Amino acid sequence: MPESSILETPPVAGGSDRRERKKRQTRDALLRAALELFDAKGYEQTTVREITDAVDVSTRTFFRYFASKEDLVVSLSADFSASLLDELRGRPATEDPFTALHGAFTAVFREYAAQSGSDSAAVYLRIVRLIESTPPLLAGYLRNIHEQQDVVAATLAEREGVDPRTDRRPQLAATILLALVGLSVKRSLTDPQAGIDSIVEEFELALSQLDSALSGHWTAAPA
Amino acid sequence: MPESSILETPPVAGGSDRRERKKRQTRDALLRAALELFDAKGYEQTTVREITDAVDVSTRTFFRYFASKEDLVVSLSADFSASLLDELRGRPATEDPFTALHGAFTAVFREYAAQSGSDSAAVYLRIVRLIESTPPLLAGYLRNIHEQQDVVAATLAEREGVDPRTDRRPQLAATILLALVGLSVKRSLTDPQAGIDSIVEEFELALSQLDSALSGHWTAAPA
DNA sequence: CAAATTATGGCACTCGATGACACTTGTCAA
DNA sequence: TTGACAAGTGTCATCGAGTGCCATAATTTG
Fold it and tell me: Residue A45 CA to C18 C1' — how many Å?
């Protein structure tokens, strides 16, 4: 069984030892048990002790797999950001920054949404909902995004062959686009029915209303 | 001596009792001692115990004044956000959303920069530097901004008489403008010499380059 | 099988944060 | 002035997150 989900440890090294497998299993078990408990009784109400008891390892072991309780959740959303960057780097150089960033973003989400064989999309939504409803997690999540900004900006600068230290447009574009991504995700969550596709829809909508929102009064209907 | 700085407890009530004064003194002392220690040995390396020892109160008292160690720092920057909202609400209704938000932002910063009689500007910069260089503080700070978004959006919606639940432009505008504020602050900090004025300059610059950054390739010089 | 690695468990400890209880001090009414 | 009453504070106890250290068990390698 493929069982390819964002819950798994990324295929870092080719280590195919039994040791590696066991590590992966424990990590995976901790992850699943934690999300289960977080769903059931909330993030803050769940102690690390409870998570490790459910998997039957020591709490000490937990902190060898995850830097912190927060990291367990946030690292999952970080994987997602990593996908976005990968996709962005793979975009043809003929695309201008805006198009490339826009394309990379929609591609990543569509990819997740299309993975019918796995539970990536479901897990992603679960995690994001958890994050959005838990202040300390939200904080860590936003910090992550904030750090990504610089990386995205650097990537864009390289694509366009400009110096990111003198030209402010890369950082500016990265800031705006990532802010829109965040907004789209947030909006989609207000609808409990909404799936991953609605994130893309919200994103498109935001882009189309950008001009209208920033110019003049809003007496007219959104363009 | 006026001593009017953002270190002080905001003038909540007119309570001019001795009790009020004493409370204010303790809070103020904790604030100053904490910032002093944070500057000297870093936020994470400073324990609450050390702060309270410097002021000679119990650690329990500390947590009666501040919800957390993080709150002590972040609440100061939150005051700033509050100023922005006040200013925004005071803007004439004839101004369109973009103009109002832009005007409110520059006004608040200019006001801070102009307070030569106090150390508001200096303290603000000190705090923001501390926040930007301390991951957990940055996280809390960003979470604050994120929460402000909804309030700003609601304010804009009211000004324009649109329904924030159906019209997405308020939230969109708030998101973009606050993201630009954050970017401007961040950029100003890279220059150790920069004062508060440079934040406004960065903001203006970002606005003027918005179109250029989001459309086409960047072969041409920034508009 | 023996030796070198490496994951794990257990323990003690620090620190942030909270709750309970008692003490002191400022405030207000009689 | 006196006597509540409330508010700020200190002390003590406790919990949970996170870390350093060392012993031990599992795994890999020779």
Answer: 14
Give me B48's structure tokens.
Answer: 């609450």
Contact B96 A183 (CB under 8 A): no
pLDDT by residue (tens digit) across A80-90? Answer: 889 999 999 99
Burial readout A98-127 (b: 16 or more C-beta within 10 A, e: otherwise): bebbbbbbbbbbeebbebeebebbebbbeb
Closest CA to A131 of A142, A122, A121: A142
Report the pLDDT value the prediction gives residue B72, as an integer from 0 to 100: 96
Contact B97/A187, CB-based, under 8 Å? no
Residues in CB range of B166: below 8 A, 6 or more apart = none
The DSSP annotation for chain A comes to -----TTSPP--S---SHHHHHHHHHHHHHHHHHHHHHHHH-TTT--HHHHHHHHT--HHHHHHH-SSHHHHHHHHHHHHHHHHHHHHHHS-TTS-HHHHHHHHHHHHHHHHHH-TTSSHHHHHHHHHHHHHT-HHHHHHHHHHHHHHHHHHHHHHHHHHT--TTT--HHHHHHHHHHHHHHHHHHHHHHSTT--HHHHHHHHHHHHHHHHHHHSS-S-SPP-
What pLDDT digit, counting tens, does each position of A177-196 carry? Answer: 999 999 999 999 988 888 88
B127: pLDDT strictly greater than 50: yes
Nucleic strand D within 7 A of Cβ B58:
yes
* Positions of chain A with pLDDT lower than 70, given as ranges: 1-16, 116-118, 222-223
Q: For residue B106, is pLDDT > 90?
A: no
Closest Cβ opposite residue B206 in set A143, A172, A213: A172
Nearest Cα of chain A lies from the Cα of B206 at a distance, in angstroms, of 7
- Listed residue (B145, B132, B143, B146) closest to B43, CA to CA: B132
Dist. CA A204–CA A185, nearest whole Å: 12
Looking at CA atoms only, how far is residue B137 from chain A in angstroms? Answer: 9
Residue of chain B nearest A178, judged by CA positions: B179
Nearest to A172 among B135, B139, B183 (CB): B183
